Amino acid sequence: MPKHSRRIDLTQVFEWREGSLRGIQDYLAAEEPLEIRVHGTPLSVTMRTPGHDLELVAGFLLTEGIVQHREEIASMEEEARGNAEADSNVVHVELAGRNFEPERMRRNFFAASSCGVCGKTSIESIRVRGIQPPNPDFRFDPCLLCTLPDKLRSAQAIFGRTGGLHAAALFSCEGELIVAREDIGRHNAVDKVIGWALREKRLPLSKCALLVSGRGGFEIVQKALVAGIPVLASVSAPSGLAVRLARELGLTLVGFLRGQRFLIYSREDRLAPVPPVTGK
Question: pTM here?
Answer without folding.
Answer: 0.83
